[in-house]
Design a protein that fits this description.
Number of helices: 11
Organism: Sphingobium xenophagum
Pfam families: DUF2889 (PF11136)
Helix content: 10-25%
Protein name: DUF2889 domain-containing protein
Number of strands: 9
Distance between the termini: 63 Å
Oligomer: single chain
Largest sheet: 9 strands, antiparallel
InterPro entries: DUF2889
Region (Disordered): 189-213
Structural class: alpha+beta
Number of domains: 1
Strand content: 25-35%
Length: 343
């Protein structure tokens, strides 16, 4: 059997957000998961998102959009309760929908015209965020393996619990498929991560709650600005959770740099940097991410899944790349915002 290629383990966070550039737009989102009724019960997901622009001749932050939701989901990742803002009566149609392809297609069919807006992005990200959320119990439970079996957590992942070949990290022959390895160093040695806001920029991130006890967070940042005929993108993504010993530990983190044609929104170049990943095979997905070059960024929510399916991609890197579909809408808002706030 030919085992997939292994790489140097990605174990170092990129740290706080960079200072915002004049003439840029920044979107930050967070989805926090908590379990008020215990590890095996339904849990809460609180999401927040904010778009800010930095005018060309001032370093202030102009908030142009905000959104959020509170969701309760079942252990099978079904939406049991949902309230969102800005309010939209159609949100109620998502009750009962299960995370994954079902939720993404349902969100698209019901709220498709909101694509590009902060609310759409955090709703679309419900699938990926809920997929990884219960990783936090590997940090807080001594009997993590028993808990996995008793609660059948794994059956809500992959193909009804079958993880073989679902992504680069779980390709045939990967150490991720080794039960001993999954319960050993790769989970217990998750690297420590710090805060995300930049202390030199109070507007670098939207306000996020201080998490106590077992709690998970998916956070992302997208910076975009024009540079001549190009649109430059600097994107960040992190899954992290609280640690019983204090502080936070990260399980996934990527940084993505991209150049996009400013007129056609064609992806011209892409660099995906694996910062924190759980297995030695996982960084291989970054090598293949360049397959999206030449595609229209506005179509990335579908294109990425077509171009990087299965072992060609990483579930979490694909989520990062899919989020870039919002860049055209963000840049449009940036152009209008700069015109309105030139000073």
């Amino acid at each position: 059997m030919n085992a997939p290629q292994q790489y140097t383990m990605a174990r170092q966070s990129g740290g706080v957000a960079p200072l915002r550039r004049a003439g840029s737009i920044r979107r930050t989102t967070s989805i926090d998961s908590t379990w008020p009724d215990g590890a095996a019960a339904a849990w809460l997901m609180e999401a927040r998102a904010r778009d800010v622009i930095a005018p060309i001749r001032s370093g202030t932050a102009v908030v142009i959009a905000e959104a959020g939701y509170m969701m309760r989901i079942s252990p099978r990742r079904e939406i049991l309760e949902l309230s969102a803002w800005p309010e939209d009566a159609r949100i109620a149609q998502l009750i009962g929908v299960r995370a994954g392809g079902e939720s993404r297609s349902k969100i698209s069919s019901i709220l498709g015209e909101l694509a590009g807006a902060p609310l759409y992005q955090i709703l679309d990200d419900f699938a990926g965020s809920s997929l990884v959320a219960r990783w936090i119990w590997s940090q807080w439970k001594d009997d993590w393996q028993a808990f996995r079996k008793e609660t059948e957590i794994d059956k809500s992942h992959g193909r009804n619990g079958e993880m073989l070949d679902v992504c680069t990290g779980f390709a045939k022959g990967s150490t991720a498929l080794n039960e001993i390895d999954m319960s050993g160093r790769n989970f217990s040695d998750a690297p420590h991560v710090g805060g995300l806001p930049n202390p030199d920029d109070p507007n670098s991130w939207h306000k996020m709650a201080e998490q106590q006890g077992p709690a998970m967070r998916r956070a992302r940042r997208i910076d975009a600005w024009r540079d001549g005929n190009l649109i430059i993108v600097d994107a960040f993504f992190q899954d992290s959770g609280t640690s019983p010993a204090g502080g936070r530990r990260g399980v996934h983190e990527y940084r993505v740099h991209a150049e996009i044609d400013g007129a056609t929104y064609t992806m011209l170049s892409l660099q995906a940097l694996p910062m924190i990943l759980p297995f030695a095979e996982c960084p291989g997905a970054s090598v293949k991410a360049g397959r999206v070059v030449g595609r229209n960024v506005a179509e990335f929510r579908n294109v990425v899944l077509d171009v990087l399916p299965g072992t060609l991609g990483c579930t979490h890197l694909n989520d990062v790349l899919r989020s870039l579909a919002d860049v055209p809408a963000m840049v449009s808002e940036l152009d209008k915002g700069i015109e309105a706030h030139v000073g």
